[in-house]
Amino acid sequence: MILLVLLSTAAAGAAIYMVMNDRNSGGEGSVQTQQLQRQAPIFVKIDPFTVNLADDNFGSRLLYTGISLRVGNDETREILAEHMPQVRSRLLMLFSGKRANELTTPEGKRRLSDEVIATLAEPLTEPQPPLDIRDVLFTEFIVQ
């Protein structure tokens, strides 16, 4: 009888230990799993542009560029899509004021990327929440 009580107590203790251990490791596993799960990036593709650049010593020059914007949320994607004619117009105005020699270096492209973000930071409509534009990706870029 004493042996039966000891075995039952040992089995109950082992069961409690295993259940508690599974809960603790399951919780940590869940946190680790959540950390490993990344949100898929959200991109807004803008059709390519062909614009005349500002004159320089070489005469008229052209810029052909394709752009994708990496945004932080669906709301920003929707606002940009709804106002795409305004977005394109602002970008055309920005690009047409550039000279070819400003755009042919990596630093020039980085500066242009920053200017695109600043240009699109101005509200497209009133009221509008701030747009979460995280990066400008040039998918095509030809200066001729």
Automatic annotation (TrEMBL):
Chief place of localization: membrane
Membrane topology category: Single-pass membrane protein
Keywords: Cell inner membrane, Cell membrane, Cell projection, Chemotaxis, Cilium, Flagellar rotation, Flagellum, Membrane, Transmembrane, Transmembrane helix
GO biological-process terms attached to the record: bacterial-type flagellum-dependent swarming motility; chemotaxis
Top-level taxon of the source organism: Bacteria
CC per GO annotation: bacterial-type flagellum basal body; plasma membrane
Subcellular location: Cell inner membrane; Cell membrane
Cell membrane listed as a keyword: yes
One Pfam match: FliL
Family classification: Belongs to the FliL family.
Function text: Controls the rotational direction of flagella during chemotaxis.
NCBIfam families the UniProt entry points to: PRK07021.1
Name assigned to this protein: Flagellar protein FliL
